Amino acid sequence: MNFPEPHYVDTNGLKMAVYEQGPKNGVPVVMCHGFPEIAYSWRHQIPAIAKAGFRAIAPDQRGYGNTGGPKGKESIPLYDIAHLTDDLAGMLDALELDKAVFAGHDWGGIVVWQMALRHPDRVAGVIGVNTPFMPRGPIDPVEGMRAVFGEDMYIVYFQQFGAAESVFDKDVARSMRFWYRKSAMKLADFDKLPAEEKNFSFIKSFAADESEWPGEQLLNAEEIDYYTRAFQKSGFEGGINWYRNFTRNWKDSESLVEKVNAPSLMISAADDIVLRPEMTEGMEQYVPDLEKQVIPDCGHWTQSEKPEELNTLMVDWLKRRFG
């Protein structure tokens, strides 16, 4: 695949790797990846959005790929949501752009919805891919997940500095093969499983023999190699640090007005067991100008699992709202 080479911009103490295609005078569409991903996760969307006349922009975000970021336990607070959104605002400054449409998947979805709250003057529109707008809950989210799912739930486990990254860094290619798999079951079948099989204890699954991992391999050898080289360079620590800021972000967001005033598109995946389509119910209360779509027969890795369907929905909405 002819994926663009990065150029680098200075933003918020980082040299951020930015990948671009499309006309410089096109409406900018910034695509934000999740965990464990990089700008390359948008490799199918970037050319489609560029071909439609938009300026497609995808950064390797803080802690990831060719951007990288600070290391060490003391650097955890440097991965909070304020830093992640400030990074993107600074990237727009460096590119001399007033505002952009922001699209985000997984953790990138959290970031782009927060961009609309924290930097509303820089956000022309929002596209959530799998990740809905999630209003601030009444309790610390990590404590809530611990109470419901226990210590083995991956986000709870990730709170231990050095633990998960040492597991994934040990054999990066194996880690990539573990994460990038098609959904092994429909959401309805997952819901029928006993509770002890629904606690998202991915580390236990990772420890099993590779032949026992559920779901088909999603990526080809070239794609696995690209991801492997990126995570061999950056390691997993920075990306996992995003999770270590759930509590800090929750405390920090107490005074935020939870209203997204930009036009927004929410694209769910019918069989994403973590970011379930029903999580979008009631979003209109916080995101008044909202369209919702669901891609059938699709698990978590929407950009790779159903690239054509996702491209069609994104481009159609972009043309209608910003063409």
Instruction: Give the H and E element order.
Output: EEEHEHEHEHHHHHHHHHEEHH
Q: Determine and state the CATH class.
A: Alpha Beta
Profile the largest sheet: 8 strands, mixed
| Uncertain parts | none
- In the CATH hierarchy, what is the superfamily? Alpha/Beta hydrolase fold, catalytic domain
Overview of the molecule:
The protein is α/β, with parallel strands linked by helices and 323 residues long. It has one domain (7-322): Rossmann fold, CATH 3.40.50. Helices cover 37% and strands 15% of the residues. The protein has an eight-stranded mixed β-sheet, sandwiched between helices. It is globular and about 50 Å long. 41% of the residues are buried.
Summarize the structure.
The chain is of the alpha/beta class. About 35% of the residues lie in helices and about 15% in strands. It is globular.
Question: Topology of this structure?
Answer:
Elements: E1 7-11, E2 14-21, E3 28-32, H1 45-51, E4 55-59, H2 81-94, E5 100-105, H3 107-118, E6 123-129, H4 141-149, H5 154-157, H6 163-169, H7 172-179, H8 187-191, H9 202-207, H10 221-234, H11 237-243, H12 246-252, E7 264-269, E8 290-295, H13 302-305, H14 307-322
Parallel strand pairs: 3-4, 3-5, 5-6, 6-7, 7-8
Antiparallel strand pairs: 1-2, 2-4
Helix pairs in contact: 2-3, 7-10
Task: List the defining traits of the structure above.
323 residues, alpha/beta, Rossmann fold, eight-stranded mixed beta sheet, 8 strands, 37% helix, 15% strand, globular
